[in-house]
Inverse folding.
């Protein structure tokens, strides 16, 4: 298993687990523990994002190296994951903003939606990781700098 993609995938899974724990905590009336857990979930998601962007810029992304008949499934998971991740990130920022501004009634409405989006983001992210790095050999890679400037 490749080191950096594995580490970044661990962080996205950790963020989803922490969101689930935070959801249980708030359902049990433990607001302070919920807040701390959700901040940890956000930090974990941000760590994933920083690792992913850094890896993309400096090392590049791998192309799918599996069989041609699996390409459509990989691409479907990837596109769905990208849409979910982008939507989940925006919802996450808004949800955190509402919490920190103490707009709790709005936070309570959007929080569960954000959590569900994030769970599906993590699941599809793991599927992309498995298809790209575990189940099949990776294709070729090119960093952003090499793609732009050549070399």
């Amino acid at each position: 298993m490749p080191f950096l993609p594995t580490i970044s995938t661990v962080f996205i899974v950790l963020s989803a687990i922490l969101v689930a724990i935070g959801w249980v905590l708030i359902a049990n009336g433990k607001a302070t523990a919920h807040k701390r857990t959700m901040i940890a979930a956000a930090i974990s998601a941000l760590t994933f994002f920083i690792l992913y962007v850094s890896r993309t810029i400096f090392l590049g992304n791998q192309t799918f190296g599996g069989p041609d008949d699996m390409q459509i499934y990989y691409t479907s998971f990837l596109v769905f994951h990208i849409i979910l991740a982008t939507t989940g990130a925006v919802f996450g920022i808004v949800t955190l903003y509402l919490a920190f501004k103490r707009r709790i009634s709005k936070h309570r409405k959007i929080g569960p939606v954000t959590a569900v989006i994030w769970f599906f983001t993590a699941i599809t992210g793991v599927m992309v990781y498995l298809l790209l790095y575990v189940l099949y050999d990776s294709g070729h890679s090119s960093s952003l700098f090499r793609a732009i400037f050549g070399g």
Q: What stands out?
A: The first strand starts at residue 61 and ends at 62.
